[in-house]
Amino acid sequence: MTADTDVEQSKMLVIGKDVLADGVVAVRLADPDGGRIPAWEAGSHIDIIIDESTVRQYSLCGDPADDTCLTIAVLREEDGRGGSRWVHDTLQVGDLVSIAGPRNNFTFEAADSYLFVAGGIGITPLLPMMRAAHDAGAQWRLLYGGRSRASMAFAAELSDRYEDRIALRPQDEYGLLDLASALDSMPDGTHVYCCGPEPLLQAIEALCREREGLVLHVERFAAKAIPVDALDDTFEVELHRSGSTITVGADETLLDAVLRSGVDTPFSCREGTCGTCEVAVVEGVPDHRDSVLTEDEQAANDCMMICVSRSCTSRLTLDL
Ligand SMILES: Cc1cc2nc3c(=O)[nH]c(=O)nc-3n(C[C@H](O)[C@H](O)[C@H](O)COP(=O)(O)OP(=O)(O)OC[C@H]3O[C@@H](n4cnc5c(N)ncnc54)[C@H](O)[C@@H]3O)c2cc1C
Predict the structure, then answer these.
(1) Which SS3 state, helix, strand or coil, does residue 142 take?
(2) Number of the ligand 1 atom closest to the C-alpha atom of 105
(3) How far, in Å, from the CA of 9 to the mean position of ligand 1?
(4) Could you tell me if the CB of 218 is within 6 A of ligand 1?
(5) What CATH number was assigned to the domain covering residues 9-104?
């Protein structure tokens, strides 16, 4: 099954590829005809469409005001299924590459104070946010961890540009990030934006649950593990707009059942991380298994990611 092809897909020309740090390359993409690139905001990512079954998401880490090129930075994941290795080993300057998006699940909200917390390649979506916070005159700090100094992309550039707002904390020099002290040092009303590996995200989520007055936003690059304590059941889904009702089998996803019924709907990662397949819920209670919606958004039960989520009720009605 291929990723949906109707969502703002375009061909881009690779105009630059540079090593930024150990295992990290930056890739710059421009319109092949010299036109403007699509508008985007801090927190956005694009899909890189490697082939029909391999689509990977990459955060835009350049300047949204630059309408001539999109920049991504990609960490080589040696143990992965090959998406990042393809970017490192195969994609070259002068190639054309298909992209979809930009799309944004990590919206940058206006505030007086920000704490940015990055783990490794999780620095990418935070770069345009720091620029925006700085330009707006907000109070802000970055706590940035990584395995070693040499593995931390953009570290030197950030230190040069923002000096004492930046705390670089390579793990081989400092150990794990001191999240508690960083959070305690920020005033009430601070928006905390965090992106990095799952243990970092879980630690900051736990600490922020205990601290009223901080507003936490996280972005997951990989799906979080969802404990499923029973076998999946079949359930019925009424497709409100198309007027049909389908049965989702215990061994298939809701997305596959929808596509099987002939209804075309966008999707991409199939892991609940990219947000492309979001659908509004008209009636019923979803069993949320995605890594995109916040706890509050999941509790509202008014939308769901149909690539991984299922149903708590025997019937759901979706705006499809
Ligand atoms: C919104 C968003 C933004 C992103 N932005 C960036 C970015 O700016 N830069 C960046 O480098 N990446 C980013 N990513 C991650 C990126 O999309 C890819 O997931 C990443 O490049 C790895 O792809 P891959 O095919 O090499 O590895 P994948 O196959 O995706 O594997 C990633 C890791 O998961 C583990 N894994 C893989 N398959 C399995 C399996 N079957 N069972 C258990 N573990 C497994 C492996 O340990 C591997 O290291 C982003 C992801 C999202 C959702």
Answers:
(1) strand
(2) 1
(3) 21
(4) no
(5) 2.40.30.10
